[in-house]
Specification:
Order of helices and strands: HHEEHEEEHHHEHEEHEEHHEE
Distance between the termini: 52 Å
CATH superfamily of the largest domain: PAS domain
Strand content: 15-25%
CATH topology of the largest domain: Beta-Lactamase
Structural class: alpha+beta
Number of domains: 3
CATH class of the largest domain: Alpha Beta
Number of strands: 12
Shape: rod-shaped
Helix content: 40-55%
Strand order of the largest sheet: 2-1-5-4-3
Length: 477
């Protein structure tokens, strides 16, 4: 409010000063115009009545003076020799030399208040507003007229104008004060509402929405605030989801590491105290090796994901026949599929040129097939591939448990398991397989999508683009 008032007071002061100055100048200009008009009219009358010797008739001037007094105006006449010839006075009056020089040049002099000029004062009682006008005849100076009106007459008009302007300005200030107070109140109320909402958000309440219009900057700020709250709410939900997945992962990792460690420790104690028969020792050692490999795989998957996520791996991209990679993959996974009652099928042309890092491409497809095997029992997993324009496309389709919309949303997040209750020991139990797949595909400049229906199955589609057609984002680069 103080800011509004400061601006208003400054503006009013400038306008008031300009208005008063204009009114003052206007009043004096009107007085000068009136007096100069009298002077020129008298000049015409005087010259028409002049005597043959060129002197002005004093009687005529007396008559003029009587007329001028009715207008509250008085006059003085000076000869061409700078001597006052009217009215008659025992003292010799003359104009200051500086004034007389200007008169001879034909200049008109305007005097606001002759009491403010020590060189030209005709009355010691009261000041006059006056003009000095030279009279010329055939280009020669024949006389000078001083004609003045009491300064009080002009100044009274000015004072009246000043009062009117000041009254108007006072009313303006009062109205401006009231309007400023009202405006400041409503603006402060809206800002206070924003402040209150901000405190709620700071306290963790993201269910805040400020109603707003579309009229000014505060409405824009409210709109931006609402958008910020929505973004913070989504971020908070995502953080909570990540925390839950992290906690779940830690619990799963602890459980999965405890089981093989317990097994290894039990076998070692049995070996230490000769509690294991000789014929069972090879099987026990093989079991320790299997459990150790599982621990190593769990650690490696985490290390691998961190390297991929932080772009610490270098891709060596070349052109190769992806069909051979898929055939080898089918051969390697055939036994695992058989153990679960699944059937592996491949649908791919014999030649399928692909531009990628061959080892990382193999890792992508292995993780996708392992994921399909993990959630499919007594079903079919189909691996297919084909060429697109400037790209190669691969699909892994299963007839497993499928996913709902929520699961599809988080399926590529780290530590996430679509169905933890059905996750089996072995590949993919860490919840990192699909996160690694997503990171590798992004680094290739490719794309991956998933279509799934709960209880029917899922299809993962991977598109790897040819050289020069990759779809990188700034973050991927």
């Amino acid at each position: 409010m103080l800011g509004f008032l400061l601006i208003i007071f400054t503006s009013v002061a400038i306008i008031g000063y300009a208005s008063i100055n204009f009114a003052t100048n206007q009043a004096y200009e009107q007085s000068y115009s009136r007096l100069e008009g009298y002077a020129h009219s008298l000049e015409q009358l005087a010259l028409s009545k002049k005597n043959p010797d060129g002197k002005i008739d004093p009687k005529f001037l007396d008559n003029l003076q009587v007329v001028m007094q009715g207008e509250d105006t008085t006059l003085r006449i000076f000869s061409k020799d700078n001597q006052m010839i009217y009215p008659h006075s025992p003292m010799k009056w003359s104009l200051p030399e500086s004034y007389f020089k200007k008169m001879k040049k034909g200049e008109t002099i305007q005097i606001r208040n002759d009491h403010q000029s020590s060189q030209l004062t005709f009355s010691s009682k009261e000041p006059y507003t006056s003009v000095l006008v030279p009279w010329f005849n055939t280009g020669k100076l024949i006389g000078i007229i001083w004609i003045g009106s009491r300064a009080q007459n002009v100044e009274s008009v000015i004072v009246r104008e000043k009062h009117n302007i000041l009254n108007a300005l006072l009313i303006t200030v009062i109205v401006a004060f009231i309007l400023s107070f009202i405006l400041s109140y409503f603006i402060s109320k809206r800002i206070a509402r924003l402040s209150k909402a901000t405190k709620k958000v700071a306290a963790g309440n993201f269910n805040v929405e400020i109603p707003h219009g579309d009229t000014d900057e505060i409405d824009d700020l409210a709109r931006d605030f609402n958008q910020m709250v929505v973004a913070l709410k989504k971020s908070s939900e995502e953080i909570k989801a990540q925390e839950q997945r992290r906690d779940q992962f830690m619990a799963d990792a602890a459980h999965e590491m405890r089981t093989p460690l317990t097994t290894i420790n039990g076998i070692l104690e049995g070996l230490q105290y000769d509690a294991i028969p000789e014929e069972a020792k090879p099987k026990s050692i093989a079991l320790m090796q299997s459990e150790t490999k599982r621990l190593i795989r769990l650690v490696n998957e985490n290390l691998d994901f961190e390297k991929i996520r932080s772009n610490q791996i270098m891709l060596v991209k070349t052109k190769f026949n992806a069909a051979k990679v898929l055939e080898n993959l089918t051969t390697q996974m055939k036994q695992k599929a058989k153990d679960k009652g699944d059937t592996l099928k491949i649908d791919c042309p014999k030649e399928l040129e692909t531009y990628a890092d061959k080892d990382r491409f193999t890792q992508i497809m292995v993780n996708l097939v392992q994921n399909a095997l993990q959630f499919t029992e007594n079903g079919t997993i189909t691996i297919s591939g084909k060429r697109l324009e400037h790209a190669s496309q691969f699909k892994v389709t299963d007839t497993g448990i499928g996913m709902n919309d929520k699961q599809r949303k988080f399926i590529f997040d780290r530590f996430y398991k679509a169905d933890p209750s059905r996750a089996k020991l072995g590949s993919g139990e860490s919840g990192l397989g699909l996160a690694i797949v997503m990171s590798l595909i992004k680094q290739h400049g490719g794309e991956i999508t998933v279509d799934s229906e709960l209880g029917i199955g899922s299809t993962f589609t991977v598109t790897i683009y040819d050289k020069g057609f990759e779809k990188f984002t700034d973050k991927d680069k």
